[in-house]
Amino acid sequence: MKRFVAAALALSGCQATESASDTILMSARVQPGEEVTWCRYVKLGVDEIARFAHAWTGSSHHAILYETDLEQAPSDPFICDDVELPKSRVLYAPEEPSGELALPDGVAFRWDTNRIALVEWHLVNPGTAAVDAELTLDLFEPEAPSHMAAGALLYYHPAIHVPALGSATARMRCLVPSDVTLWWMASHHHELATGFSAQLVDRNGADRGPIHRAPFQVAREQAIEFACDYQNPRAEPVIEGPSARDDEMCMLAAIYYPRMDDPFRETCSGADSGPMFDGTATCAATLACLEARAGDAVGSEECLVSTSASSTPALNQLVFECLPARCALECAGMNASCRACLEERCLPERAACLDAP
Q1: What is the count of structural domains for the chain?
Q2: Which of 4, 100, 176, 195 lies 20 to 30 Å from 156, alpha-carbon distance?
């Protein structure tokens, strides 16, 4: 099962008595043995959010409230497994049956009321009878206009390969470009995970100690490094993916303030950020491996995690930065159309990859 390990002084039981400024309701029937994700686009009626609260019943596993760039969308709930959705930053991501997250006085998420929000609701029913589930999300405005905008970090490791009957560790390093306070943090992984750790490092790699709990201060140009450890008792390898039963994840989420000038960096993006591999293959060899195993999801993940530490920065810039930004439609796999797109639109990054040690 998926699990969030939260560390936050601001996270507590849902005990609010005042009326919510906006409320989102969803319901679903989950069949026996079913794992399903329901989504719904919603128009919020608030321009600032200072507190979130939620409650659910039934087979709810987690819920995530996202910001999107959409200004219009249908409001009917729909099943969204394996559907690419236009979601951007995370606003709230609970995994307990009830709870709340309150920001400090004077801090709030700023919301453009012209935009649409997206609720993603993951449900798992391991039982033998159908379950009726309900979800309530309450959003509260601050008592007075805020003086500081909050932001959300979502650091998601894009390549995990845990061999059959073996162990593995997924690591990621994310540079923080400005002074911030982490107000709430959570790790996220699935059932094969045996441990999680996070630490603060300087840009030169000097260790500044573990990150135990929020609130936590991070200085400009410091980085957050985190790792998930896995042990696989299964007779087949397990890779990164959305299924709580079949796949694995390694993620760190955080609410922080003040918000960065460049929200692009909230997703562990940029030249000094990304997954950390410690294999033996050069970036060129990894590309050749991806081409040879195009269409093989397990093989592709194995190719990626085999990249050497010295080649990882070049691989990150090509595969995890340029490819999704400029060649996402062409690169369902490392096929001929994908290679042609990379040669045309990611030429400097491809050249750096081929030259990397």
Answers
A1: 3
A2: 100
